[in-house]
Each structure stands twice: as C-alpha cells, then as structure tokens.
Amino acid sequence: MPVKQLPQSPTTPDHQPPYASLPSDIGGKAANLQSLQAAGFDVPPFVVSPDNLSATVARLGTPLVVRSSATGEDGDAVSFAGQFESYLNLNTLEQVAQAVERCHDSVRQPSVADYCRKHAVPFDQLKMHVIVQRMIEPELAGVVFTVNPTTGSDQMVIEACEGTADALLSGQQSPLPADHPLLRKHRRGIESLARRIQRHFGTPQDIEFAIAEDRIWVLQARPITRITFSSEAGEWTTADFRDGGVSSTVCSPLMWSLYESIWDCSLKDTLRQLRLWKHDFQAAKMFFGRPYWNLAALKDCLAQLPGYKEREFDDDLSIQVNYTGDGKVTPVTVGRVLRAIPTVLAVKRFLRSQKQAAEALLDSADSGSFSPWHDMPRTEHSFRQLIEQVYAEVEYTYFRTIFAASLAKLDFVSSFPNADCGALVAGLPPLRHMAPVRAVQSLPQRTPESIAEVTNTYRHHYRNGLDVIFPRWDEDQTFVHNMLVDLPDSGGRNPIQAYHTAYAETLQQTPRWKRRTFERKLATLRHFLWLREELRDVSSQIYYHIRQHALELGHQRDLGDSIFFQTFQDIFADRRDHIETNREIYDSYRCFPAPNEIGGPAPADVPSAAGDLRGIGVSPGTCTATAFLAKNVEQAANMPRGQILVCPFTDPGWTAVLDRAAGVVTETGGMLSHAAILCREYGIPAVLNVRNAMTTIAAGEMILIDGGRGRVEPLNQREA
User: Fold this and answer.
1) Mean pLDDT of successive 10-residue segments in the chain (720 residues)?
2) How many other C-beta atoms are found inside a 10 Å radius of the C-beta of residue 364?
3) Cis before residue 204, ω within 30 degrees of 0?
4) How far is residue 349's CA from residue 239's CA, in Å, rounded to a whole number?
5) Does 3 share its domain with 99?
6) Where is the PEP-utilising enzyme mobile domain (predicted)?
C-alpha cells in the first residue's frame, strides 16, 4: 500500500525562531522585538540605532523610550538583566540624544565587565545598539513569566502595577494583588499572549507588557535563563533517555506514550525481580516537553544495598550532582549484608534469564520474523497488533537488557576497580548500527545506485532522533546520500589491539586465584554491551514500522502529521481532542535547552576556569586537532576530516559521521553510552560528560584530548 511521505516536521532539534536580523547584528532585545513584530504581535513602533535621530523622533512622535540592545543581551544563556538602563518619558530631541549616548557609554562600565567575567562572556566583543521606541502610556503594565522560575512548574507568574512598570521592575513598588480588578480583567488576555510568545520562540519567556485602551503591547521578551525547582518536584533525570534520542529534544506525544508504557513496566518488573522493590512510584514524567525518569525513586530502592554510594551511581550515569562528598552512603553491616543475599542471588538469576531472552529475540530478528511488516497492509488492526505484540516484546527486552548491562558493569568494576574498563570493552563483535558504514566502505564505487541500495537496506536509521515524528533514511535520501558518499574509506585505530593489550596487562596484574573470575565477569559485561547495541538496532526497526503505520493512518484519517500529537491510545480510539494542546506544548519548548536533571538545589554558577577541562575518558588515546562545534548531526556532517568533534551529545543518528572525527568531546554521556561504544569501535579517543564544552571550547581552537584520563586541554591557538 502506498504511504504518503510527509516532509520533515519544521520542529527539528535545531529549529530556531525566525529573526529578521540576528542578535549578533542588532543585539538580543532588538532582534526579539523585530521577530515579534514580523509575526504580528503588537509591538510599539521602534527604530534600532537610527542614523538620523532627528527624523526618527519626528516619525515616531513623543513621548519616547530609549532601551539598550547589547549583543548577548536577552539571549538564551545570559540576560544582562539590570546591567543597562532604559530612559522613559523623553519628549525632546536633546533628551533622546542624551539617552542614546548614555546607553552607548554604559557598555564599558566596570559592573558590565564584572558581569561578563562571571558569565564567561567576552567583554571586548560586546557591542551596544539602542532602541528608540514610542512609549506606551498604560493603565496597567508589568511582567509575566511563562513558567514559574522559582519552582519550575508551568504555572504562569504575573506581576503588574497601575501605570508604567519601571518602579515595579526596579523593586521600588509592590505588585498589585491577584484579585485586583485590573488584573482580573486582563489576566486571560495576558496569559494568552504569553503562551503565543513562548510558542513563537519555542522557549519559556520573561515578557514585559503594557496595556492601553484594552490593547496589550509587548515591550520586550527574553528567554528565562535560570529556573530552579522546589523540593516537592522530586529528582528526575534524562540520563540514558537523551543518549537514546528521546530526550535530546522535545518528544512527540506518540513517542512518549510508547516509551512510557514500556519503561514503567520494565523498570518496576526488574526491581521486583532483584528484590529491591519498596513501593509503587511514577517511573517517568514529562517536563518541558521532554521525558525524564524518576531518579529519586530508583536511588531509594538501591540505597537498601550495603556499600551503596550515591556519588558512584551518579557518576556512572553522568548525572550532575549538587552535593559534596559521596552523597548518601549505606554502611556495610552484618545485618545489611545478610538482608542483601537474596538480591545478590536474584542478580545472577536475572542476568542468566535476560541473556536468554535477548539472544532469543536476536535469533528471531535474524530469522526474518519482522520482515513481513515491510509489505503488510497498514491498517488500524495491524497498527494495534504492532504496538501490543511486537513493540511491547522488543522494547521490554531491550530495556531490561540495558539494566542487565549496567549491572554487569557494576559487578565487574566493583571486583576490578583498577582495570581499564574503556579499553577492555572495546573491540566488540560487529555491531548492526555500524553496518551501513561498513557496507559503504566496502563498495568498489560509490555510485548513486549503490548508495541508494545501502540507504534502502538500512532504511530504519535516522539522523534527527529516535522519535517517530522524524523521517527515516528512506525519506531523507538527499542528506543520507551526501553523508554516506563522503565517508572516509577507513578511520581511527583498530580497537581490537587496544582490547588485547588491556586484557593482557590486567590479567598479568590480577592474582592467579582471581583470573577466572576476571575472565568470566569481563565476558559477561562485553556480551551484554553487545546484546544491548544489537537490540537497539532491532528496536529502531520496530519504530520504523510504527512511523510508517502512523503516516498511513494519518493519511487515511486526514490528520497528516497531527497523528504524531496523539498518544497510541488516542490513535486506537481515534480521539482528537488533545491534538492542538499537545502540538502547542511541543512547539513551546522546541528551542529550550532543558536541564538534564530536575529537582533538588540548583547547581551553583561556576565560571569556566582556564586550563584543562575534565570529563569521563571512555575511549583511550590522545589527539591534538582543531575543535569543530556541532549542535546536531547536520552540522557534524560538514566537519572536515581530522578535526575533533565537540557536541552536546550523540545518539545512533550520528553513527555515520563519527568516523570522520579525530576525536570526540561531548557534554553528556558515560562509559556505557552509545557515543562511548562507537568511539571505541572506531578507535578514536573520546572524553564525555565535559560540562559546558560547547561554550567553553571555541570553534577553530586547537585542543588536546586524552581519552584515557578524561582530559581536554585548550591550547589557546586558532586555526589560521
């Protein structure tokens, strides 16, 4: 049955709000106002850095306001709030000229230099532009936050006063109570406007407004740059979810409904089987349009084990911590050890049973059990069958294999803490998601026909993320062709040699009586890592079929891509009442750099220090080369060969571009992450979990990375 191929959703991971002029050209505040004005929002008339001030004053009329618009001001990372002045009620050309001059002069104040140093903003690159704008004389004015910046909830916060809001914003006037008649009159309109502005920019907003004659004017809008969370929020993380590609950007409701259903049962069933279950809890939750899992609940279960250290658990998953020392530690006592014996025995049984389940599923996939889904008519019945039978089994087995791999690593590392784990898990048997790279590199000639054949064979691969809302390779052939045809013939070092060397050295240093244990536990760890990666590819195949079914059902029901804004339960019942709300949420957070962890005290703002950067060394070797910064796989595909890729994260969609890198640095990830596996298989050094690498390392800068020690050293040189 022919399938309607939809274009890629405009809400791609790197989607940015439309700017008439870039913030780097006219400053953040002016760029935001221009963007809002072009989108049809009510913005008072204004001119940015006018050449003819007299003509501007004559055209706009009076009274006027002059506002700063420095480069970097009102940006995603820093706001420069309170650093510059706005000048109100200007009625003459002389007053306006003086205000413009003061704005320009303010950029060199010592307080601004201190702010730049604190937030790692290059002070010498700061430029000031000014906004000359018609002033609104309002009956009500104030600010609205589209999310609560002190609790992290999506409850709007409105503070307003009668007349202009300059005294309110400077803290010299208290806001009106919530039951004030003016607020009751305009609250719904303010909230509606705020939601529209957040949806326009795709990130939570701090908006200044003024209301005159029942018309709500937007005076400025900027991203909320700091959000803290109340203790009632609990502790949540995207660890492993972002590496899998579902939390790396906003997640569609269809994808989240699939993921949540299996994550909940697979996690809780595993805890029960390991005798670690305490009580029921919400396993996962959406924040800012992204999935998070319940970190606090899992820690509570694991803390029953003697010798548990919170720091070791967090470090293993690359979770950012806000405590000192080891965090929560469970003492080792005779009583606790005795109570833990059932769990120790249960772990062994779980690893045996999960090994059998994973191998059986791989055998089933290899025997072609999923092949009929390529040609099967895509109907409502087959969609339900695909979800309830095939997907449920595959994803349940895959998730539990992930847990098994983590347990196998914990077992190995606790027994052999000094072993070079990164090298010892390199050189795994051939991995399925690297098969397209091997296939292209083995082609005698890379013709359009041969590349198209590879693309079709591995059609379930993707570039933007695992989410079923994004196209797969067979729908994205131009990009895939260009990426594959430019693959190097070979790259990196042979990882097998590093593995054999580390194996021989560790075995030599291990007492004879412990060597068989070393061999057995290492073999278990390596096998589960291989099983996990193989099942990841099988899982991707099932998501491919789910996407194709969703596309066809969307076509049959005249929904188009709106079907991705339904849950799978809604699709079963053909319920459509939540589509627009779900799409609004998706759009409203599409550009938000959501935190990886939520809950607990906010991490302290620590300015980047000069010198080495630290992370987790996951693939041994050293490399000195030019840094290439890439926020997504499209940018990474343009990286010249032999440079060091610096990126926020990678997921399986990056597989075909990593082979062109001389080394890899990411802001997230750990020893068992997908990026770590790939870098070891490609034989390229990698340092992961380097906090703020994308802002600390400059594009074109020469850096040295040590993938064994987890060190990144900027060399303060730039490529000519």
Assistant:
1) 35 52 77 94 94 94 91 65 81 95 83 75 79 95 93 91 88 90 97 97 95 96 86 86 80 96 96 95 95 95 92 85 88 94 96 98 92 88 96 97 94 91 91 90 92 94 90 92 84 80 93 95 96 95 96 97 98 97 96 86 43 82 93 89 90 83 89 83 89 89 92 74
2) 14
3) no
4) 26
5) yes
6) 640-710
**How far from chain centre, in Å, is Cα 248?**
3
pLDDT score at 606: 39
Same domain? 1 vs 130: yes
80 and 48 in one domain?
A: yes
Residues 628 and 691 in one domain: yes
DSSP 3-state of 202: coil
Token pair belonging to 451: 């590349």
Q: Could you tell me the CATH number of the domain that includes residue 66? A: 3.30.1490.20
Please work out, in degrees rounded to the nearest 5, the angle formed at the alpha carbon of residue 373 by the alpha carbons of 367 and 377: 150
Torsion angle (degrees, nearest 10) of CA 377, 379, 382, 388: 150
358 located within any domain: no
The verdict on 171 and 129 lying in the same domain is: no
Q: Which domain holds residue 630?
A: 613-718
Contacts of 74 by beta carbon, 8 Å cutoff, 6+ apart? 23, 27, 28, 29, 32, 80, 220, 221, 222, 223
Q: What is the C-alpha separation between 235 and 244, in angstroms, rounded?
A: 20
Listed residues 212, 227, 242: the one ending a domain: 227
Task: Give the whole-angstrom CA distance, residue 293 versus residue 205.
Answer: 25
Is the domain of 119 the same as that of 11? Answer: yes
**Residue whose C-alpha is closest to residue 218's, from 233, 207, 228, 234:** 207
How many degrees, rounded to 5, is the angle at CA 334 between CA 332 and CA 340?
75
- Rounded CA separation 320/454 (Å): 40
* Among 227, 245, 274, residue at a domain's last position: 227
Is 563 in contact with 484 (CB distance < 8 Å)? Answer: no
The burial of 53, by beta-carbon neighbours within 10 Å (0-12 exposed, 13-18 middle, 19 or more buried), is given as middle
CATH of the domain at 672: 3.50.30.10
Same structural domain for residues 86 and 161? no
Edge-to-edge strands of the sheet including 140-145?
Answer: 157-162, 140-145, 205-212, 215-223
Distances (CA, A) of 97 to 5, 45, 151: 57, 18, 42
Residue 172 lies in a domain: yes
Q: What CA–CA distances, in Å, run from 3 to 98, 126, 540?
A: 64, 52, 19
207: CATH: 3.30.470.20
Residue 84 per-residue DSSP state = S
Q: Is residue 457 part of a domain?
A: no
Rounded Cα distance, 444 and 182, in Å: 75
For residues 310 and 119, what is the distance between their CA atoms, to the nearest angstrom?
30
